[in-house]
Amino acid sequence: MKDSNPSHAPKAVTILGSTGSVGANTLDLIGRDPDAYTVVALTANENVAALADQCRRFRPQMAVIANPERYGDLVAALDGTGIEVRAGADAVIEAASLPADWLMGAIVGAAGLKPTMAAVERGTTVALANKECLVCAGELVTAAVERCGSILLPVDSEHNAIFQVFDFDKADDVSRILLTASGGPFRTRARDSLAQVTPEEAVAHPNWSMGAKISVDSATMMNKGLELIEAYHLFPVPEERIEIVVHPQSIIHSMVEYADGSVLAQLGSPDMRTPIGYTLGWPERIATPSPRLDFATLARLDFEAPDPDRFPALTLTRDALRAGGSAPAVMNAANEVAVKHFLNRTLSFLGITDVVAETLAAMPARPLADLDDVIALDAEARRRAEEAVMRRA
Ligand SMILES: NC(=O)C1=CN([C@@H]2O[C@H](COP(=O)(O)OP(=O)(O)OC[C@H]3O[C@@H](n4cnc5c(N)ncnc54)[C@H](OP(=O)(O)O)[C@@H]3O)[C@@H](O)[C@H]2O)C=CC1
Ligand SMILES: CC(=O)[C@@H](O)[C@H](O)COP(=O)(O)O
Ligand SMILES: [Mn+2]
């Protein structure tokens, strides 16, 4: 029987990257109100054990493992469940294309670009955590959102904060976006002292529990540069009016300043279930278990200017945004390669931004044609970044 009140029908949801930090937080919320959702598809890269556990609990129509070598393991793990099991990058795109009311894009890196585009082109409401998509192909993604009438909801905590206080009907009255940055685990360290830092030190974020790649990005402050580009594509504000301010406590998640001097901010404990919940419930608000702020015991909120001398990623990213075209995609690909090598201990921490700078210098900015162009450019930038890493070995 058809529900006479469609707003009470369970929301059909797909989660790309369900086994990661954002994906698991999304399922945590869904699991707290199981009657409100049906799960269409869950996807992972290679973590069969976690994906199979999630599938047994949430019973999606389809489970996809991107690494085809893990297909047999997933089939065996889900034997008898009736869940359709698929493998490979194309199967992730198929999962993203299944009819759903809401899709969480929580794959890490440019690998999420094609699946995100598939969901946008299907007209699905996309909650996007996967910032690298917008960095690589912001114009193409936002144009597809317009063309296909889909809705893009920012999950990244800063962008979600801005989204909550940005008056799109009065965008001309916005004078500045103030993107807050924690400063990462090395905020107070001298640059020379960073030469020997280990992956364990770099992933130890002071406030947030996140996947390894974004944690390293926070440590180099590349994350804030990626977020600058992400904000540029999500909000109608010119680049020179998007400023970064270091706020070590990560309580204010970003701010919007208006022409009259008013500054609107969104605050909350550093728990991704608040911004994820905002997008999951949108346009309503839903309850989340995120710890509440206690202003009586919140000792202080500090702010300081970012330091591009110690964190050159801040300059590299703004320059790439200004250069436009291919530059942000090249920068992102080189960063993904460099972070992978740092985590594998085959590149030093300071080598990360060196490799990004070298790759950008070798591939001057040019206009982007289409999605295939971005994918080809991404592959070429990865090849050159690998060479830059090898030269340092
Ligand atoms: N973590 C956070 O709090 C925040 C994250 N973000 C952004 O959200 C995205 C996800 O971050 P996070 O959850 O921390 O990352 P994780 O590394 O924790 O999770 C990444 C997810 O993507 C899957 N995955 C990795 N590579 C591929 C691939 N090639 N193809 C398909 N799936 C793949 C992983 O599968 P498997 O587990 O099998 O490896 C996993 O499910 C990133 O873009 C990040 O910048 C933004 C704001 C906050
Ligand atoms: C939770 C989230 O959105 C991350 O992007 C977080 O903001 C990282 O913190 P910093 O990059 O500010 O250290
Ligand atoms: Mn963020």
UniProtKB/TrEMBL annotation:
EC number: 1.1.1.267
Keywords from the named record: Isomerase, Isoprene biosynthesis, Magnesium, Manganese, Metal-binding, NADP, Oxidoreductase
GO biological process: isopentenyl diphosphate biosynthetic process, methylerythritol 4-phosphate pathway involved in terpenoid biosynthetic process
Ranges of residues in domain 1-deoxy-D-xylulose 5-phosphate reductoisomerase C-terminal: 152-235
UniProt KW Manganese keyword: yes
Domain annotation DXP reductoisomerase C-terminal: ranges: 267-383
Domain (1-deoxy-D-xylulose 5-phosphate reductoisomerase N-terminal) ranges: 13-138
Annotated positions binding 1-deoxy-D-xylulose 5-phosphate: K131, S157, E158, S182, H205, S218, N223, K224, E227
Positions contributing to Mn(2+) binding: D156, E158, E227
Pathway named in the protein's UniProt entry: Isoprenoid biosynthesis; isopentenyl diphosphate biosynthesis via DXP pathway; isopentenyl diphosphate from 1-deoxy-D-xylulose 5-phosphate: step 1/6
InterPro entries: DXP_reductoisomerase, DXP_reductoisomerase_C, DXP_reductoisomerase_N, DXPR_C, DXPR_C_sf, NAD(P)-bd_dom_sf
Top-level lineage group: Bacteria
Cofactor(s) listed in the protein's UniProt record: Mg(2+); Mn(2+)
Chain residues that bind NADPH: T19, G20, S21, V22, N47, N130, E132, G211
Catalytic class of the enzyme: oxidoreductase
Function of the protein: Catalyzes the NADPH-dependent rearrangement and reduction of 1-deoxy-D-xylulose-5-phosphate (DXP) to 2-C-methyl-D-erythritol 4-phosphate (MEP).
Family: Belongs to the DXR family.
Name of the protein in its database record: 1-deoxy-D-xylulose 5-phosphate reductoisomerase
Organism the protein comes from: Rhodothalassium salexigens DSM 2132
Gene behind this protein: dxr
